[in-house]
Amino acid sequence: MNLMLFESAFESRWLEGNDPRAQHLKKVLRAKVGTLVFLGFVNGPRARAEVVAAAPDGGFELRVVGTEPAPAPLPIHLLIGLPRPHTAKRILFEAASLGVTAIHFFEAQHSEPSYAQSSLWQTDEWRDRIRLGTEQAFGTHLPQVAMHADLQSAISALHGAAVHVVLDNYEASGGLSEVLPDSGASAVLALGPERGWSAAERDIFRKNGWKLAHLGAHVLRAETACVAAVSATAAQLGLWKEQTATQL
């Protein structure tokens, strides 16, 4: 992890030796008294902290020495036809790394019903994936994650964005850049499961005013398409212009 996330802000904090963050300090960073490390507070600022004490059992005391604003989340929501759990893990990690506002899943017609019963969704494993992605990207925003019963329910929950785009390799007549505005808008991007959208789902999207677009001639893996679509959208809408490197 490039940054250790904590649920709430503090000035100083003791980490027990069995805390994964303490183990990271010991095994990866080889921290000792005086070492400076990066940390962040969920949906809050980033911080620089100094190790002020280290115990033989692997515990550490951290003291915050400086803070700065963390990158704001991108005003982009993802709507994903529920994929295989392994693919969903990658999407959760990559989408959190990119800083999207939220990730919405639903059981698409070409999704396998058993996917929703996997340990990823029945435990807190999905939370771990977005946390790891956020820490890797040096951010603090944890995307909201929602599971919808069906496509129409998901569409109803996502009606407020400025533009709604369905990524589709087969019936889209133009590329993503052709349906996005030039700047300053929020967006919802829908990506199908591994077997793609059904004809009925395309009809539902069209009836609700969503635009179909593609990412080019190549068929991409779901997690690759997710990264490509978010990156292209953020670039075209100018959402990365205000981002700056850490000053800590």
Short characterization:
The chain is α/β, with parallel strands linked by helices. The chain has 8 helices and 11 strands. The mean pLDDT is 92.
Tags for this model:
elongated; 6-stranded parallel sheet; 2 domains; 248 residues; 5-stranded mixed sheet; 29% helix; alpha/beta; Ribosomal Protein L25, Chain P
Under CATH at level 1, the class of the largest domain stands as Alpha Beta
Number of strands: 11
Sequence of secondary-structure elements: EEHEEEEHEHHEHEHEHEH
Low-confidence stretches: none
**What separation lies between the terminal Cα atoms?**
17 Å
Residue-averaged pLDDT, rounded? 92
Superfamily (CATH H level) name of the largest domain: SPOUT methyltransferase, trefoil knot domain
**Number of H/I helices:** 8
How much of the sequence lies in strands comes to 25-35%
Identify the CATH architecture of the largest domain: 3-Layer(aba) Sandwich
Spell out the blueprint of helices and strands.
Blueprint: E1 4-6, E2 12-15, H1 20-27, E3 36-41, E4 46-54, E5 60-68, E6 74-81, H2 85-98, E7 100-106, H3 119-122, H4 125-136, E8 144-148, H5 151-157, E9 163-167, H6 176-179, E10 187-191, H7 199-207, E11 211-213, H8 222-236
Parallel strand pairs: 1-3, 6-7, 6-10, 7-8, 9-10, 9-11
Antiparallel strand pairs: 2-5, 3-4, 4-5
